Amino acid sequence: MIIGVHGIAEEQLGRAQLLRAWKPALSDGLELVLGCEPRLLPFDMAFFGNKFLKPPSDGKAGTGAAGRLDELGDDEIADLMQAALEVVTQEDVSAAEAMPPSKMFGRVPRPLQAVLRALDMRFGAAAGVLYLGSLRQVRQYLCDAELKSAVDAIVAKSVREDTRVLIGHSLGSVVAWEYVRQHSDHALSLFLTLGSPLGLRMVRSRLPRFGLPGSVPEQVEAWVNLRDPRDPVACGGDVEGIWPGVADRRVNNGKEAHRATAYLSKFEAVAAILSALPGLGGA
Length: 283
Description:
Elements: E1 2-5, H1 15-34, E2 43-46, H2 74-84, H3 90-97, H4 110-123, H5 127-143, H6 145-158, E3 165-169, H7 171-182, E4 190-194, H8 201-204, E5 223-227, E6 247-250, H9 260-264, H10 267-276
Parallel strand pairs: 1-2, 1-3, 3-4, 4-5, 5-6
C-alpha cells in the first residue's frame, strides 16, 4: 500500500478529491516508465486540510491560514522573515524596498511586503505568497500542540499496517516525517518527499530529534527527496547533507514548480516506487 500526505491550501477539498488527482498522476508516470498501464495501484490519501480551515469573519469567506498573511502576529512575522532570508539576500530585500509599493500586498504587514517582492523576483509571480503561506502552515503545525496532535492522529489512522511507501508533499513531507519519527516500529520500503521545506533551518529547528543524529531513520529502507530548483517551498536545497543517506533528485515541473501531481508523474518518483514495490511492474 502507498499512502500520500498532502500539502497546504487543500482546506476546501477532501480525501476523495485529492485521491482523484494524485492517483492518476502516479498512474500516468508508471505507464510512461513501464510502457503499459500498471496492473494495480494500491494508493490512498491521508487528509487533514480541514484542520486548518478557519470560520468566516468580517463578511469574508472562511479560508486557510496560508491565505491570511494579513493576520500575522509579531512572532510569526519574525519567523517568516528569518525563513525568507534563508533564500533571498538582504540586498534582494533592499532592492525590493526601493520599488514602488504593490497594491497586491497592501494588507500584508509592511516588514513582509518587500520580502514578498524579493521572492517573486527570484522565483516568479506569486512565489512569495506560496513560500510564506506554506511556511506559516508548517509553523502552525509544529507550534500548535493541539493542531499537531489532531493532524498526527489522522495520518496515523490513515497509514495501514501494510503501508510500505509513504509520500509527503510540501507540508505533508513534514507531517509524514513526524509519522516516521513517532512510529519506529513501522518498517517502510520508501519514504518519498516532494517539494519539501525540510531543508530550511526554520523548519528543522522545530523538529524533534530522533534516532541517530543526521541519519535516515532505521526503519526506512530508502528516503528519496525530489525538488524542482524553481520550487520556492523546496528552496532550502537538498537534504542529503542534513540526513546522510537521502537520495536527492532534481526535476523540472514546468511553470507550476510546486504542483504535487507534477512531482508524482516524474520518472524519478516512479523509479523509486518501483524499486520499493517491484510488483507494480506486473502487466
